[in-house]
Write a structure and sequence with these properties.
It holds the Pfam family ABC_tran. With 272 residues, the protein is of the alpha/beta class. Helix content is 29%, strand content 26%. It has ten helices and twelve strands.
Length: 272
């Protein structure tokens, strides 16, 4: 399913965070949203998963205005893996994933065979079927993140929105999750903190700076050393990864780093 953001702007407490953003993601395409902390990545995603109504512009999903859809209709079309997901530690894995079926049920409907099949399929796709009866609180961080992904997949929505999905995961869990996400065949819009991950896995990259689009296109065209230094303030080397052959971004500190202010270190990641 195609996603189009046409001139989308967003405010928080009257302050402009995102301004006149245009981006698109075609069916089955992986679009990565990158930018420095405070650039508006998470805020922009909130306009797509209907947590923050745009102050301007339109979010189109499958040609329809996402914000004019009924909530249940919207939930059947886009699923979300949030940055700070909580599936409930005292739920079993299967119970947590079953929450994703809410979009397909009326308030008093009971679980049916289709729901159980969707939960089983979702757990199998993320490699967590073995843990269906386990409590979430007994799983590792990477395993819980895969359960949350299974919950999103159980919605059976064609668009998946992800906000920093690899946060707080070790290196192995990060790669496992990214490989899995890339293999799903869904339309993907993901805010990613790691430029190397974005270059390796995304079909296209959209770079935000100060709430505006600073660059967009295929990774090899957008992520040049000069552009990365201008936007992120670090030096970069771009080339094929020596093991995978995929685009690879290696970063280094600036040649002459200036003093870092306390304000910069405490940038509000809520608007990243």
């Amino acid at each position: 399913m195609r996603l189009d953001l046409n001139g989308v702007s967003a405010r928080i407490d009257g302050r402009p965070i995102v301004t006149d953003v245009h981006l698109s993601a075609g069916p089955g395409e992986f679009v990565a949203l990158v930018g420095p902390n405070g650039s508006g990545k998470s805020t922009l995603l909130r306009t797509v998963y209907r947590s923050l109504r745009p102050s301007g512009g339109v979010v189109h999903l499958g040609g329809e205005d996402l914000w004019r859809m009924r909530p249940r209709h919207a939930a059947r079309r886009r699923a979300v893996l949030p940055q700070h997901g909580d599936a409930g530690g005292e739920f079993s894995v299967a119970e947590a994933v079953a929450v994703g079926r809410t979009a397909h049920k009326r308030p008093l409907d009971r679980e049916n065979a289709a729901d159980r099949a969707a939960v089983t399929t979702a757990l199998e796709r993320v490699g967590m079927a073995w843990a269906a009866g386990r409590l979430l609180s007994t799983l590792s961080g990477g395993e819980r993140q895969r359960v949350l992904l299974a919950r999103a997949l159980a919605q059976e929505a064609p668009l998946l929105v992800l906000d920093e999905p690899t946060n707080h995961l070790d290196a192995g869990a990060q790669f496992t999750l990214l490989e899995l996400i890339r293999s799903l065949g869904l339309t993907l819009l993901a805010a990613l903190h790691d430029l190397d991950h974005a270059a390796s896995y995304a079909d296209r990259i959209v770079v935000l700076r100060d709430g505006r689009v600073a660059g967009h296109g295929p990774p090899g065209e957008v992520l040049t050393p000069a552009f990365i230094e201008d936007v992120f303030g670090v030096r970069a080397h771009i080339g094929p990864h020596p093991i995978t052959g995929r685009p690879h971004v290696a970063l280094a500190p600036p040649t002459s780093p200036g003093p870092v202010s306390a304000t910069a270190l405490e940038a509000d990641t809520a608007t990243s």
